[in-house]
Amino acid sequence: MLTSLRKKIHVHKTSEAHVKAGEIQAVSRKEVMQTNIADQQKHKFASTTKVFRIAYYCAKKNRPYTDFRDLIRLQVANGTDLGRILHSEYTAAQIIDCVASEMRKKLCKAIVEQAPKLSVYIDESTTVSSQSVLIVYIRASVNGKDPVTFFLDLLHLPKADAQSIEATLTTCLSKHGFNNDFLAANWIGVCSDGASVMLGRKSGVLERLSGKYPQLVKWHCLCHRLELSISDTIDSVPGLQHVTSFFEKLYAVYHQSPKNLRELFECAKELEVQILKIGKVFTVRWVASSQRAIRAVWESYPALHSHLVKASTSSEHTTKQKSVFSGLNKVLTSEEYLLNLAGVADAVQEMGLLSEALQRDDITLPRAYQLINRSVRAIEKMKDMPGKHLKEAMESLEKGNFKGVTINPESTKGQVRINLPRFYQCLVDNLRSRLYALTASNRPAASSQSDEFESLVSEMEILNSQRWPNNVDSPWFEGEVKLEQLCKRFRLNFTSICEGFRDYIDNAGTEIPENLKPAVTAVNSLPVTSGDCERGFSTMNLVMSPIRSGLGIERLSSLLFISLIGPPADLWDPLPYVRKWLSSHRSADDNKSRKVDHPTQQEQRYSSLWDVF
User: Fold this and answer.
1) CA distance 153 to 66
2) Going edge to edge, which strands form the sheet with 132-140?
3) Are 489 and 459 within 8 A, CB to CB?
4) Is 424:383 a contact under the CB 8 Å cutoff?
5) Reduced to 3 states, what is the DSSP secondary structure of residue 600?
C-alpha cells in the first residue's frame, strides 16, 4: 500500500501538469506583470525617483511630512524637474509607507530563506499621545555576516499586561513571515528590561514564551542589571546617600539659576579651568551619565570652590542663599567628602566604561562576560590598592590642598566617611548576584537559575580557544560533550560542527573552520542588552514630537524603520521601490492629472521688503 502511494506521488511529480503548475508559480513570484508595466514607463522613472529620494530623506532625518513639500519647492526653484504631481505631504506619507513596507518584506524574506538563529528584544513604553506601544528588535546574522541587532516593528498594545504583550509579539512575528515552525527551529533567545510584566517568574512575558519554546534563553538586559547592582550598593553602604544628595544640591544651584551658572563660568575663566556639565548621579540614566557628572565636579573643583566662596559673601544674594553656598563649600572642601568623592569616582569610572562597552554594536555575550569579569577584578583590587582618583586625593591631603584649594581636616556636620573597602566588596557582591544569572534577582528563589547560567557559560567557553586546557589535542571528548549540549540547545547539526571543532583544535584556535561557524554565529546571536530598544524609543520621541502627536502607530513604525536601519539617502537606490509604486500608483509625470502649483506659504507681512532683498 505504501509503495503504491509513493509510486503515485512520483508519477504526479514528474507529470507535465505538475511541472507546468510549478513554472506558473515561479513566474508569479517574479511579479512579471508589475515589472513589464514598470519597463514600459522607464521614461517616467527620472522625476518619480527624485521625488522618492526627497521623501526618503525626510524619513531618514526624522523631518515632518510638511518639509517634503518645502523641499520640493526648493528643488523646483533650483530648476530640477520633479514632474507634475506627487508633491504633497500626503503623498510623502504614502511613499514612505510603501518604501518601509517593501524594505521590511525584503529583510524578513531574506531571514526566513537563510534561517539564521535569532534573538528577539522587546520593550514597552508610552508615546506622547499616551498610547502604550511595544517595540520589537531582532538580532540575527544576515547574508553570512556577523549578527546585527535591528528594529523590526512598533506595535500598539491594547493592554500592558503579559497576555496582551505575548499575543501582540507572536502576531507581529507571524505577520512578518516567522511562522511557528520557523521560530521553533531558529528562535534561541528573548531579552527585555527588568519590568515585572516581562520577567515575572510565574506569568511574565518571557515565562509564557518559554512555555511555547522550551529551548528559549530568557535574558534580562545586562545594562539594567548593572544599574540594579549599583542601586543595591547605594542602599547598603552608609555615606553614599550623602554623595548623591550633594550632587542634587549642586545640580539645583546651577541648573535653576542662569546667573549662578554664568558666575561659575567666570570663575573658571579666571582660573583657566574647563567647566563640564554638572548633573545628577545614580538617577534613571545609565551609570555612564553618573561618571560624567562626577568627572565634571572633579575637573571643576577649583572653579566650584571659587564661586561658592564668592557667592557666600556677595551682597547680590539673600541671607538664605549665602548660607546655602557656604554650606556647599564646607562640604566640598571637607576631607571626608573629598575621599568619598574620590573612592566613588574610581568605582563609577569602571562601571561607566563597562556600561558603555556593553552597549556597543558589536558586543557579544562571550565578550560581555569577559569585560564583566575584568571589571569585577578591578573593583576587587581597589580594596587593597587605591584607584587613580583616591590616590590623587590622598597625596593632596598630605600637602593640605587639592588643586590649589585648602582642605579642611575637621569633620563636617552630617558627613559620613564611606568605608571604601566595604563599599567595593558590597559592589562586587551585588555585581555577582545580579550579573551571573539569566534573569537577575536578589531573591533566594532566583538562585535556581545559576545552574542554567553556568551551563550556558561553560558551553560557550568551549568555542573560546583561550579557555582550553594546556596542550589539548583532538579529539577532546570532554569538550565535545559540552559542544553537543550547545548544539542541542541551538538545534544545530552536531556531526558537522564536531568535525569543525576538531579542525579548530588542530589549528590551535587560529582560524574558525566553516563547519564550526554556525555554532559561533548562534552564540554571538544571543542577546546582551536591550539598549537598542531604549535608543529606539529615543528616536520615536524625536519623530513623534508633541506637535506630531497625531501620528498613527503603523505610520510611526514606517518612519522608525527607515530612520533607524535604512541606508543613507545618497547610498539608497529608489528604483526597485519606484517600480513597485508605479504598478499601482501614478508617476510624477502623469499627464492626466492637473499639475500641482506651488503657492507661497509664507506670511505676507514683510512682502514690501522682499524687492529690496
Assistant:
1) 24
2) 148-156, 132-140, 118-126, 187-192, 217-220
3) yes
4) yes
5) coil
Phi, psi of 492 (to 5 degrees): -115, 160
Instruction: Please give the Cα distance from 596 to 405 (Å, whole number).
Output: 70
What stretches of 115-176 show up as alpha helix (H) in DSSP?
162-175
Band (pLDDT 50/70/90 cuts) for residue 603 is: low
pLDDT, tens digit, 9 for 90 and up, residues 1-31: 555 656 666 666 677 776 677 666 665 555 5
As given in the structure block, the three cell numbers for residue 32 are 512579471
Name residue, grid cell 582642605.
407
List of residues 6+ apart from 70 with CB closer than 8 A: 601
SS3 label, residue 171: helix
CB 181 within 8 A of CB 518: no
Average pLDDT, the chain: 86
521-540 burial, b at 16+ Cβ within 10 Å, e below that, comes to: bbbbbbbbbbbbbbebbebb
Neighbours of 24 (CB within 10 A): 9
Q: Is 80 exceeded by the pLDDT of residue 99?
A: yes
Q: Residue 334: exposed, middle, or buried by beta-carbon count in 10 A (0-12, 13-18, 19+)? A: buried
- Nearest CA-CA partner of 523 in 132, 139, 57: 139
* 449 confidence band (pLDDT: 50, 70, 90): low
CA dihedral for 489, 495, 496, 502, sign (positive or negative): positive
The C-alpha cell at 313 is 559673601
Would you state the cell numbers that stand for residue 99, as one nine-digit string?
Answer: 518604501
Q: Are 305 and 332 in contact (CB under 8 A)?
A: yes
- DSSP letter for each residue of 66-90: HHHHHHHHHHHHTT----SS--SHH
Cell 524687492 identifies what position? 611
**Residue ranges in 256-364 assigned as alpha helix (H):** 258-271, 287-299, 301-313, 319-332, 335-358
Question: Phi and psi (nearest 5°) for 118?
Answer: -135, 155
- The pLDDT score that the predictor gives to residue 445 is 42
**CA 282 remoteness from chain centre:** 20
Give the chain's end-to-end CA distance (angstroms, integer). 93
Q: Which of these, 14, 34, 11, 33, lies nearest to 22 by C-alpha position? A: 14
Side chain identity, residue 421:
P
Best CA proximity match to 557, nearest among 68, 90, 182, 137: 137
Query: What CA–CA distance (Å, rounded) separates 456 from 454?
Result: 5
CB 188 within 8 A of CB 140: no
| Cell, residue 258 | 542662569
What are the grid coordinates assigned to 346, written together? 574610581
The alpha-helical segments, DSSP class H, found in 416-530 are: 420-435, 449-461, 477-490, 494-506, 517-524
CB atoms within 10 A of CB 157: 19
Ranking 63-72, 252-261, 365-374, 522-531 by mean pLDDT, the lowest is 252-261
Q: Which is nearest to 94 in space by CA: 554, 550, 591, 547?
A: 554
Q: Return the exposure string of 496-516: e unless at least 16 CB atoms fall within 10 Å of the residue's CB, then b.
A: ebbebbbbbbeeeeeebbebb
From residue 302, alpha-carbon distances to 279, 336, 397, 449 in Å are 17, 17, 15, 49
How far is 131 from 147, CA to CA, in rounded Å? 32
Q: How much is the pTM?
A: 0.86
